[in-house]
């Protein structure tokens, strides 16, 4: 059983290695945001572990992540509304992938 489990971890790591630095950063942002916005402890821990995996593979300076942390917090606390009453935290967090603020931070630090 542990042999099977280990192969999944290696597989996930290999697929992460194929991601661009921009994708790693934006996935980190999204994971941090989801972890901050959920009331589920299980989902929170999963999102933060996922963010750690993206961070480990990134070549960006820590300043990019410090600024990104503030941005993830901002998006996690958005109060978006939709046609169905309720929260839209996942929608807000996923929108970080194309947020101009995320693009600015990535561009600033990827050229260093």
Structure description:
By secondary structure, the protein is mostly helical. The chain has one domain (21-110): Four Helix Bundle (Hemerythrin (Met), subunit A). Helix content is 73%, strand content 0%. The chain has six helices and no strands. It has helices at residues 2-17, 21-37, 41-57, 62-76, 89-94, 100-110. Helix 2 runs antiparallel to helix 3 (41-57). The protein is globular. The model is unreliable at 1-11 (pLDDT under 50).
Query: How many structural domains does the protein architecture include?
Result: 1
Mean pLDDT figure: 89
Strand percentage = under 5%
Rg, Cα atoms, Å: 15 Å
Class by alpha and beta content: mainly alpha
CATH topology: the name is: Four Helix Bundle (Hemerythrin (Met), subunit A)
Largest sheet: none
Write the H/E string, N to C: HHHHHH
What is the name of the CATH class?
Mainly Alpha
Using DSSP, what is the number of strands?
A: 0
Protein name: T6SS amidase immunity protein Tai4 family protein
Pfam families: Tai4
Main traits of this protein?
mainly alpha; Four Helix Bundle (Hemerythrin (Met), subunit A); 6 helices; globular
Give a quick summary of the entry.
This is T6SS amidase immunity protein Tai4 family protein. With 112 residues, this protein is mainly alpha-helical.
Topology (SSEs and partners):
Blueprint: H1 2-17, H2 21-37, H3 41-57, H4 62-76, H5 89-94, H6 100-110
Helix pairs in contact: 2-3, 2-4, 4-6
């Amino acid at each position: 059983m542990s042999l099977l489990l280990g192969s999944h971890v290696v597989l996930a790591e290999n697929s992460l290695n194929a991601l661009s630095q921009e994708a790693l950063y934006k996935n980190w942002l999204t994971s941090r945001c989801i972890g901050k916005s959920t009331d589920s402890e299980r989902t929170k821990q999963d999102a933060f572990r996922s963010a750690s995996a993206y961070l480990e593979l990134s070549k960006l300076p820590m300043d990019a992540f410090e600024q990104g942390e503030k941005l993830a917090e901002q998006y996690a606390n958005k109060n978006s509304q939709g046609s169905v009453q309720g929260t839209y935290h996942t929608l807000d967090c996923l929108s970080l992938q194309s947020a101009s603020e995320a693009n600015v931070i990535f561009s600033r630090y990827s050229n260093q």
